Amino acid sequence: MSATTRVPQEERTRAMRQRLMDATVELLVEKGFSGTSTTLVSERAGVSRGAQLHHFPTKNDLVVAAVAHLTQIRGSDLEAAVDRLPEGPGRTEAVVQMLGEHFASPVFTAALELWVAARTDPALLQAVGPLEQRVGRETHRLTVELLGADESRPGVRELVQATLDLVRGLGLADTLGDDARRRRRILKEWARTLDAALEKGGTPQ
Amino acid sequence: MSATTRVPQEERTRAMRQRLMDATVELLVEKGFSGTSTTLVSERAGVSRGAQLHHFPTKNDLVVAAVAHLTQIRGSDLEAAVDRLPEGPGRTEAVVQMLGEHFASPVFTAALELWVAARTDPALLQAVGPLEQRVGRETHRLTVELLGADESRPGVRELVQATLDLVRGLGLADTLGDDARRRRRILKEWARTLDAALEKGGTPQ
User: Fold this and answer.
1) How many C-beta neighbours within 10 Å does residue B10 have?
2) Cβ–Cβ contact A131 with B under 8 A
3) How far apart are CA A29 and CA A19, in angstroms?
4) Which of A26, B25, B130, B187 has its CA 20 to 30 Å from the CA of residue B19?
5) Residue A31 CA to chain centroid, in angstroms?
6) What's the CA gap between A119 and B113, in Å, rounded?
7) A96 CB within 8 Å of a chain B CB
């Protein structure tokens, strides 16, 4: 096989895998983990059953690959949002609102489906656990950087962690039909409190 | 049927329903929503298939009743914990640690399984949604009372809500194998920040 024919083939394969991953994430959001089947995924992706089974023989193979794909989407989503953040006084609120939106997105919903399924599925947990730890560490590092927080000062690390656990809790509430207005109000207040606690010139209540 | 024979029969029925509910909650924790079947529940509860089907003809009937049962357990769990709270300076931390433990208990895990299943199951959502709203309101009211928080002051309501969303986020992290030490450290710092924000004599960072 010559280089000119091999490259398009590799591209087609990559595009097909990408469609399968996208379809898996979409179906996790729409139908949940238990409602996501390999048949539905290949239909949605417009990929033949044979080709799908060749790349991902089982549902777990598919879902594990989708977790990695999801991790990548989450990372680039956040990095893209970072570029739109203002400098100066409104920055802390902009950072926590950005995190709040991120944890209320379909990408969070798909991840939630995987977490909950992994809780009672050891094989899935083995794939989801380490990835989730990596995403957690990276999100923490990014948040510290964006807030300009000094973690060598006592309590600062815990407040950054609390901020991330707060947006995770708000994301979970959102999946049950909570509304964005409530989330924004809470995060606005948390940003003021965080500013005061981090001594960045915010006004304590 | 005389009163003397009717009363024991009613008691037996109540005890049997109670066993079915307990078994459902246990199975939700152990095997998740999709791994919980009516057959497994009747086996676990030691109740005949016929009797179980008489009281709860479908899995959704069983799970919806278990949600109500769970709601009751969660309420009385919290009320019991309230009696053990100290008065004075350590109270805010004791309140948030109590909430943290409550949201990291098996009862939270079972509720999480129902929430996530309800997200993509309209019939289940119809039962879970209103109950969850009621529990949310009651937990909020209790938290305000325990913290002695004055919600007429700007920002206080949002900080109480943030506290509950935080413990929900910590509870979710806990189901993926997070540890209690991390949770306690975060909540200790949160309590200090909350005390400062609520002007209850805490020391701002």
Assistant:
1) 10
2) no
3) 15
4) B130
5) 18
6) 10
7) no
Contacts (Cβ under 8 Å, ≥6 apart) of B16: B45, B47, B51, B55
Token readout for A165 is 């656990």
pLDDT tens readout for residues B158-183: 999 999 999 999 999 998 876 899 99
Are residues B116 and A112, on separate chains, in Cβ contact within 8 Å? yes
Contacts of B26 (CB under 8 A, 6+ apart): B44
Is the separation of the CB atoms in B115 and A176 below 8 Å?
A: yes
Q: Per residue in B18-44, pLDDT tens?
A: 999 999 999 999 999 999 999 999 999
Q: Which helix (H) or strand (E) holds B79?
A: helix B59-82
Q: Does B117 touch chain A (CB under 8 A)?
A: yes
Q: A residues 32-91 near B, CB within 8 Å?
A: 32-35
Specify the pLDDT at position B78: 81
Altogether, the residues listed in chain A come to a count of 205
- Find where tokens 């199975």 sit: B27
Cα distance between residue B133 and residue A101, in whole Å: 22
Q: What is the mean pLDDT of chain A?
A: 88
The CATH superfamily assigned to A3-197 is: Tetracycline Repressor, domain 2 (1.10.357.10)
Please check whether residue A130 touches B, CB under 8 A.
no
| Res A1: pLDDT | 52
Cα–Cα distance for residue pair B107/B174, rounded to 1 Å: 13
| B44: nearest Cα among B13, B70, B15, B19 | B19
Instruction: Using CA coordinates, name the residue in chain B closest to A176.
Output: B119
Quick one: pLDDT at residue B132? 85
ipTM: 0.89
Q: Report, in angstroms and rounded to the nearest whole number, the Rg of chain A calculated over CA atoms.
A: 20
Name chain B contacts of A97, Cβ cutoff 8 Å.
Answer: none
First vs last C-alpha separation in chain B: 70
Rg (CA), chain B: 20
Q: Which of B120, B186, B188 sits opposite A165 (nearest CB)?
A: B186
